[in-house]
Recover the amino acids of this structure.
C-alpha cells in the first residue's frame, strides 16, 4: 500500500453495521457518537455470574436478513448477512451485474455459530440424538457466514474465513486488502461477525475474571482506559466493508468513505490470553502498518484503540501507544465503552468506525471514561462529547487471545 492517491491504494466504498449501538451504519454512528453505553441487564443470562450484556437492539432476522428462511442461520451469520448487504448497497454495487469470479468474501469470527452449538448440545444431552437438527453443522461452522454470503452475492472468487480471536474482523479486512493488491479480485467484501452472548461463553469469560461485575450499574460497566475499569462487557454484532482498488473505485465514480492505506499483523508469542506486558507485539504491528502506508509516527493524529476495559489490556495498549506517539499524542477513542466487546466482530466494526471518523472529521467519545489511572494517563482519551478533528492518518488496533495483533491505517479519501 502506498501514499493516498497513488496506485495501490485501497478504497472503502461501502460500510454495513449491526451493533449494540444500532442496526445500520447511520444508527450505529449516532449511537457511538452519543457516548451512551448499550449495556443492560440480560434476562437470558439471569442466574449466571454476570447477567448483563450489550445486545443488538430489536434485531429481527425476517426484517433485516435478505433471502429465504433466515431463521435457518445462526445469529452470527444473520448479523453478517445484514451488514454485508448494507455495505454492498452503500457501495452502489449490484451483485446481479458484477463478475462474481472477481469478487472475494473474507469474514472473521472468534466462535462462529456457538449459539447453535450450545442449543443443539443441550437437545442432544436432554432428549437424545433424534432431537438434533440436521441443519446444525451448516449453522455453527465458523466459515458458513462467508459461505452463505458468497451464495447470496454470487461471489465465486476467494471466499475465506479468518480466526484470530478478537482480531478476526480486522484480520479479514487486512486479508481482503492483500487479495485486492495481488490482483486476486477486484471487489472484496470483508468484515467480522460474532454472537457470543450465550450462557456458556458468558460464564467462561466470567470464570476467567475478564468481565466487569458492575451488576448495580451495567451502563457504567464498560469504561476503557478509566482508572476504575474492572473488565469488559460481552457484546455481539457485525461490521462489513466493501474494498476496491482506489483507481477502480474512481473509474466507476464510487463513493469513498476513506482509504485503507496500510495494514500489518504480529504475534506476541507470550501467553494464551494475556498480552505481552511491554506491548512489544502491538508495537511491531504499528511500525509495520505505518511502513506499508509509507508513513511515520508523527503523521498519526487519531487512534481507534482496542480498549477492552480490562485492567491489563488497557495498560499495555496505553504503554505501546505512548512509546510510539509520545512526542505529539494522537486523539484516542475506544468504542467498546458503548458497544461492549463484540469479540470477532470488533475489529471490523471499529475499522468501519475509524473510516467514518476520518470521513466526518469527528472523533466519537469513549463512554464512561472519567479519570485516567496509573498506566493510562499518557493517552489523550476523547470523552464526554464528540471532538471535531480533521484527521490525516488514523490507526485502528485489534488484539486477540493467542497474542494476535492487527493494525489498520486509514487516510481521508483522495
Amino acid at each position: 500500500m502506498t501514499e493516498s492517491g497513488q496506485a495501490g491504494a485501497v478504497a472503502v466504498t461501502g460500510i454495513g453495521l449491526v451493533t449494540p449501538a444500532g442496526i445500520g451504519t447511520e444508527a450505529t454512528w449516532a449511537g457511538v457518537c452519543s457516548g451512551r453505553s448499550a449495556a443492560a441487564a440480560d434476562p437470558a443470562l439471569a442466574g449466571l455470574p454476570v447477567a448483563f450484556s450489550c445486545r443488538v437492539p430489536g434485531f429481527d432476522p425476517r426484517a433485516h436478513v435478505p433471502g429465504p428462511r433466515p431463521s435457518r442461520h445462526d445469529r452470527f451469520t444473520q448479523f453478517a448477512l445484514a451488514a454485508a448487504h448494507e455495505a454492498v448497497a452503500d457501495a452502489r454495487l449490484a451483485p446481479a451485474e458484477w463478475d462474481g469470479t472477481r469478487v472475494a468474501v473474507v469474514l472473521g469470527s472468534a466462535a462462529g455459530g456457538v449459539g447453535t452449538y450450545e442449543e443443539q448440545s443441550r437437545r442432544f444431552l436432554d432428549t437424545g440424538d433424534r432431537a438434533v437438527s440436521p441443519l446444525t453443522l451448516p449453522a455453527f461452522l465458523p466459515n458458513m457466514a462467508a459461505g452463505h454470503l458468497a451464495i447470496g452475492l454470487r461471489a465465486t472468487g476467494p471466499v475465506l474465513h479468518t480466526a484470530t480471536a478478537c482480531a478476526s474482523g480486522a484480520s479479514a479486512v487486512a486479508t481482503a486488502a492483500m487479495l485486492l493488491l495481488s490482483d486476486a479480485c477486484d471487489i472484496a467484501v470483508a468484515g467480522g461477525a460474532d454472537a457470543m452472548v450465550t450462557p456458556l461463553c458468558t460464564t467462561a469469560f466470567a470464570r476467567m475474571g475478564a468481565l466487569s461485575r458492575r451488576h448495580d450499574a451495567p451502563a457504567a460497566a464498560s469504561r476503557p482506559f478509566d482508572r476504575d475499569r474492572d473488565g469488559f462487557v460481552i457484546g455481539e454484532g457485525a461490521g462489513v466493508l466493501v474494498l476496491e482498488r482506489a483507481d477502480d473505485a474512481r473509474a466507476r465514480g464510487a463513493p469513498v468513505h476513506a482509504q485503507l492505506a496500510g495494514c500489518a499483523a504480529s504475534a506476541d508469542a507470550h501467553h494464551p490470553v494475556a498480552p505481552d506486558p511491554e506491548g512489544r507485539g502491538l508495537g511491531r504491528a504499528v511500525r509495520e502498518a505505518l511502513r506499508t502506508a509509507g508513513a511515520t509516527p508523527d503523521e498519526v493524529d487519531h487512534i481507534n484503540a482496542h480498549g477492552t476495559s480490562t485492567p491489563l489490556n488497557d495498560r499495555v495498549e496505553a504503554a505501546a501507544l505512548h512509546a510510539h506517539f509520545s512526542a505529539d499524542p494522537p486523539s484516542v477513542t475506544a468504542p467498546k465503552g458503548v458497544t461492549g466487546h463484540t469479540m470477532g466482530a470488533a475489529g471490523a466494526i471499529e475499522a468501519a468506525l475509524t473510516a467514518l471518523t476520518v470521513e466526518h472529521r469527528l472523533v466519537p467519545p469513549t463512554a464512561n471514561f472519567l479519570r485516567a489511572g496509573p498506566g493510562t494517563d499518557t493517552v489523550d482519551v476523547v470523552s464526554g462529547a464528540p471532538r471535531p478533528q480533521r484527521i490525516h492518518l488514523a490507526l485502528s488496533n485489534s488484539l486477540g487471545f493467542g497474542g494476535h495483533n492487527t493494525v489498520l491505517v486509514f487516510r481521508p479519501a483522495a
User: Anything to note?
Assistant: Residues 75-90 form the longest helix (16 residues). The radius of gyration is 20 Å. The CA atoms of residues 67 and 380 lie 45 Å apart. The mean pLDDT is 96.
